[in-house]
């Protein structure tokens, strides 16, 4: 009789369920609970650390690229009126273009950081475009901000037209 009491179906079912739970815990639930705890711990570390997303290598590359771009804009504004204008006029002369006018500095065209210098060139279209290209490739004159082409007649009676290119150079103000 005692022997039958130990092997009742209810006791057998409960012991089988307990063994099955231990096996499932060891095979699946233990790893899942460990991964969940690791995830929770890493999230709290991420929140506590100060901005881990900043990558120093990326920031360095970005700064060097920005410095290269700013180098294009740099020119010595004090020497622009003398040395740079003589270099610009020599570039224009090489292409048979005349540097017609260099207006005085206009405060409208400058702010604290940048200075915009206006230069007027006279010549034919293709020569003006060659000057535009050569000045665009030069690094010590600043960066070309815009160019305006205008056709003017010399006098009202004559039919000859002059093509004028107004070139605006943007320079970092030192």
Tell me what the structure shows:
By secondary structure, the protein is α+β, with helices and mostly antiparallel strands. The protein folds into 2 domains: 2-48; 74-172, 2-Layer Sandwich (Alpha-Beta Plaits). Helices cover 54% and strands 21% of the residues. It has helices at residues 2-6, 9-48, 56-73, 77-94, 125-137; strands spanning 98-101, 114-122, 143-153, 161-172. A 4-stranded antiparallel sheet has the order 1-2-4-3. The longest helix has 40 residues, at 9-48. The chain is rod-shaped. The chain starts with a helix and ends with a strand. The model has no long low-confidence stretch (mean pLDDT 78).
What pattern of helices and strands is seen along the backbone?
Answer: HHHHEEHEE
Rg from alpha-carbon coordinates: 39 Å
- CATH superfamily grouping of the largest domain: Ribosomal protein S6/Translation elongation factor EF1B
State the strand order across the main sheet. 1-2-4-3
By CATH, the topology of the largest domain is: Alpha-Beta Plaits
- The number of domains is 2
Specify the CATH architecture of the largest domain. Answer: 2-Layer Sandwich
Low-confidence stretches: none
Per DSSP E runs of 2 or more residues, the count of β-strands stands at: 4
Major sheet, described briefly? 4 strands, antiparallel
Strand residues, percent: 15-25%
The share of residues in helices is: 40-55%
Question: Helix- and strand-based class?
Answer: alpha+beta
Number of DSSP helical runs = 5
């Amino acid at each position: 009789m005692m022997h039958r009491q130990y092997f009742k179906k209810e006791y057998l079912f409960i012991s089988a369920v307990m063994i099955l739970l231990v096996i499932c815990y060891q095979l699946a639930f233990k790893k899942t609970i460990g991964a969940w705890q690791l995830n929770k711990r890493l999230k709290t570390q991420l929140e506590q650390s100060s901005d881990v997303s900043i990558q120093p290598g990326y920031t360095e590359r970005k700064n060097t690229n920005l410095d290269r771009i700013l180098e294009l804009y740099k020119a010595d504004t004090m020497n622009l009126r003398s040395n740079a204008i003589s270099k610009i006029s020599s570039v224009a002369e090489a292409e048979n273009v005349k540097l017609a006018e260099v207006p005085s500095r206009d405060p409208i065209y400058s702010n604290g950081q940048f200075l915009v210098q206006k230069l007027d060139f006279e010549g034919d279209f293709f020569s003006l475009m060659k000057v535009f290209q050569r000045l665009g490739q030069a690094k010590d004159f600043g960066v070309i901000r815009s160019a305006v082409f205008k056709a003017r007649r010399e006098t009202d009676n004559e039919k000859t037209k002059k093509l004028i290119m107004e070139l605006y150079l943007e320079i970092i103000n030192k």
